[in-house]
Write a structure and sequence with these properties.
With 170 residues, this protein is of the alpha/beta class. It has a single domain (2-165), classed as Nucleoside phosphorylase domain (Rossmann fold, 3-Layer(aba) Sandwich), CATH 3.40.50.1580. The chain has helices spanning 8-17, 30-40, 119-129, 152-165, and strands at 2-5, 22-25, 47-56, 66-73, 84-86, 95-101, 114-116, 132-142. Helix 1 links the parallel strand 1 and strand 2.
């Protein structure tokens, strides 16, 4: 199992909790994540877990809640060019949510519960390369909140606990 985190900050609590886990920093955004996944040469039999923080649109989600993203859409493209990626089945017992993969931090929901900056690439590359993809996000903020209100540390501690709980469950 390979754990991808966009930043070292997001990886650090899990790295401390599971020092033997294979952790790779992918970089922030779709291009950096695509480059990293391609360089790993993943294929059938590999499991890639993308983990990090997310902002939420949905008030039923709690700050610090950890969710599994089961559907991604690149909503900043014109509607006729948007791609959606849906997991064939959930991979965890976490609440499954829809997410927007965005370049900016204040996009419109379009029916998604959360937003992030890398997820669609994980699923698109999974379809192309044949590895099993799992995306797990911890809610750190409400979309549109100023950064000083984000609860990143709380979200990352919760994320590390959840990842540790299913670290070797395949």
């Amino acid at each position: 199992m390979i754990y991808l985190f966009p930043t070292e900050l997001e990886a650090l609590p899990f790295r401390k909790a599971c020092p033997d886990a294979k952790i790779v920093i992918s970089g922030v955004g779709m291009a950096a994540t695509a480059r990293t996944i391609a360089s790993l040469g993943c294929g059938a039999g590999d499991v890639v877990v993308l983990a990090g923080i997310a902002g939420c649109y949905d008030d039923s989600l709690s700050i610090g809640e950890v969710v599994e993203v089961v559907s991604e859409e690149c909503v900043e493209l014109p509607e006729r060019f948007r791609s959606s990626y849906t997991q064939p089945r959930p991979c965890t017992s976490l609440r499954g949510v829809r997410s927007n993969t965005v370049h900016t931090m204040q996009s419109v929901s379009h029916g998604a519960e959360v937003e992030n900056m890398e997820g669609a690439v994980l699923f698109a590359m999974s379809e192309a390369m044949g590895y099993r993809a799992i995306e797990v996000r911890a809610i750190s903020n409400r979309v549109g909140e100023s950064f000083d209100k984000w609860r990143v540390d709380d979200a990352l501690e919760a994320l590390a606990r959840e990842l540790k709980a299913f670290e070797y469950a395949e």
